[in-house]
Amino acid sequence: MDGHASSEPAKVTVLISGNGSNLQAIIDACGTDALPNAKIMRVISDRKNAYGLQRAERAGIATTYHGVVPYKEKHPDPEDKKRQSQAAREAYDVDLAKIILSDKPNIVVCAGFMRILTASFLNPIHDSATPIINLHPSLHGDLVGAHCIDDAWKEYGAGKRTKTGIMIHYVIAEVDQGAPIVQQEVSIEECKSQDELEERIHAAEHKLIVKGTKMATEAIGQRQV
To answer: Does pLDDT of 136 surpass 80?
Structure first.
């Protein structure tokens, strides 16, 4: 990875899958006191109709749609054609890493990217000394996977918890187990529905992903001094 001087903004690649509200929070924060030393170079989505791509285009940011269908067709699962085979996942991730590394970013931010990344992606990115960070709707060591908000709400209804949380963490092979950069508790109490809980979590996410990105980019600069 090319180093960047402290006076130059860190080059950021953002991965998304959907609406992109957290991406928008980063876009709005770049160049402000909240995130003064970062510039988004490219936004990549695994979903063609992800609204986050439109957000990026409006902000003049390069976008790339990297869909999985061609990989599923080339590497079909012998037991279930609708399911994505491991070979398809790995081939997809090899090319995703190539797309990202061609821009020589200083950091990769997963902001609602709904894919579990394999070693075929993680190894070349890590070998380039490019940190990868992720937004996860749970505290470190608590809930993992794609249904954390659902699980937290169910446990709240069962009287097993009164709070959940969110974190920004470094991405490693073990899903949602990388070292946390920053995290925040979110109370579930007084939420009348899961939708209310989701709104509460998302509102907190928009601030925390900016804070986590700032902390991670500052850490890059410290390592280069």
So the answer is: yes
On the question of pLDDT at 225 being above 80, the answer is no
Cα distance between residue 76 and residue 69, in whole Å: 10
For residue 70, pLDDT over 50 is answered with: yes
Domains of the chain: total: 1
The catalytic residue positions are 136
DSSP H helices, 42-118, are 51-58, 69-74, 86-102
Question: 């659902």: which residue's tokens?
Answer: 150
Look up the domain containing 127 and give its range: 10-139+166-185+206-224
How many CB atoms sit inside 10 A of residue 189's CB? Answer: 7
Give 3-state DSSP helix, strand, coil % of the chain, rounded to 5: 40, 20, 40
Residue with tokens 């950069």, as numbered in its chain: 181
Nearest by Cα to 107 from 51, 49, 168, 154 = 168
Specify the CATH number for the domain of residue 33: 3.40.50.170
The pLDDT value given to residue 202 = 96
Average pLDDT, the chain: 94
Inside any domain, residue 96:
yes
Task: Give a yes or no: residue 51 inside a domain.
Answer: yes
* Lookup: tokens for 33: 């006191």
Q: Residue 78: which residues within 8 A CB-CB, separation 6 or more?
A: 85
Whole-model pTM above 0.90? yes
Rounded Cα distance between 155 and 16, Å, is: 28
Reported confidence tier of residue 5, pLDDT bands at 50, 70, 90: very low
